[in-house]
Amino acid sequence: MDSLAGTQSYYEEADNRRKRTRLIVGVVLIVLALAAAWFAFSSAKGDGAASADGAGGTGAQAIPNVTVVVPGRVSVVAAISVNGTIAARREMPVGVAGEGGQVARVLVEPGQWVGAGQTLAVIDRSVQTQQAAGLAASIKVAQADADLAQSELERAQALVGRGFISKADLDRKRATRDSANARVRVAQAQYQEAVARNGRLDIVAPAAGLVLTRQVEPGQVVGAGSGVLFRMAKGGEMEMLAQLAEADLQRVKVGTRATVTPVGTDLKIAGQVWQVSPIVSMDTRQGTVRIAIPYSSALRPGGFADARLVAGSGEAPLLPESAVQSGPEGNFVLIVDGKNQIQRRPVKVGTVTDGGVSIASGLTGTEKVVVLAGAFLNPGDKVKPVVQKSSQ
Q1: Whether residue 229 has pLDDT greater than 80
Q2: pLDDT digits (tens, 9 = 90+) for 21-77
Q3: Residue 381 vs residues 73, 329, 341, 374, 384: alpha-carbon distances, Å
Q4: Where would I find the H helices in the chain?
Q5: CA-based torsion, 225, 229, 231, 232: positive or negative
Q6: What is the pLDDT of residues 370-380, one digit of tens each?
Q7: Which of 55, 165, 288, 332 is least enclosed by beta carbons within 10 angstroms?
Q8: Residue 232 has what pLDDT?
Q9: Confidence of residue 6 (pLDDT cuts 50, 70, 90)
């Protein structure tokens, strides 16, 4: 029993020593952690004080560099960008001019060029041809009667001097001769009328041009009420119908040069304004400008196109697009004044070109205009301007 008690006492003493060791190690770790925290706090405080002292001593180095440009004044083309619809400049609707009938042949297709008077479609004329032949025969009958009346008159004139025929009989024969000649002229007129009506059975082009549409097929019965059978562009001439705002309409005159680009192509077709609308729509406050353009296979009436109208040129400052900003009160730029401070200057934007944005008013061209980072600057900020050379 004593031996068992001694062994138990030995294990209890060893367990107590391990607990004391762990406690000492934990206390040491806590002390070391507190010491490290105090050292870090002291170092951060010293660094902050040093940084504050350094900032106070080198405040000039905190002024940001800002890229500016002095635009000057350059020649700027005043252009107006518009879009509109392509149409035939002189569209000619072609329909039935005569009595009509059943279409025998159609001789043209859309996209085909035709000459003035060229036949577009032929209407069956079998009945009309026989009628014309009958009228031609009636002319010969009337002419034979007229020849007989003339012969009888001549014989009567030879006998009247001998007293065989009275003067009254001679007058009657002369009247018969004149009536026969009149019947010849009537028959001839009727025949010519039939020929002219038969000629109008052919549907012909009123002038040379380009066939745009075809709305008739062989076998179709057409007449005066059939409407338009073909549409043509006289001479193949095209135009663009562009809608312009009332203010822009005042800047465009007849003869203004234009460059038309059909949608879906890269073509640049030269045109010219040939008509400016004399009225402005009360609903849209817009007017129509008609731009004459030569024929091109890329132009299709009814299609869309963009156009650039050259409305003149003038001297104005030209800035990069990044220099011009917009706000609730309109467009503005930031400039650097003589004290190297930011100022806000309202401007009116003119023509937008590939080279930049022209300024219609608000700048003289001698100012230092901020090119970039305008959104991070405020009026009154102190900056160090770095002048960028203009590419103009």
Answers
A1: yes
A2: 777 767 667 766 666 656 555 544 444 444 444 444 444 457 888 888 888 887 766
A3: 27, 21, 5, 11, 10
A4: 2-57, 126-160, 167-199, 246-249
A5: negative
A6: 887 666 788 88
A7: 55
A8: 94
A9: low
Q: CA-to-CA distance for 157 and 179, rounded, in angstroms?
A: 18
**Pairing of β 330-336 and β 325-327:** antiparallel
323 SS3 class: helix
Structure tokens at 91: 């569209």
Tokens coding 53 = 């002292």
Mean pLDDT of the chain: 81
Do 105 and 201 meet the contact criterion of CB atoms below 8 Å apart?
Answer: no
Q: Side chain identity at 163, as an amino acid letter?
A: G
| Residue 213 pLDDT grade (very low, low, confident, very high; cuts 50, 70, 90) | very high
Tokens standing for residue 104:
């025998």
- CA–CA gap between residue 154 and residue 176 (Å, rounded): 12
CA–centroid distance for 234 within its chain: 22
Quote the CA–CA distance of 233 and 239 in Å, as a whole number: 11
Q: Measured between alpha carbons, how far is residue 125 from residues 132, 206, 217 in Å?
A: 10, 21, 17
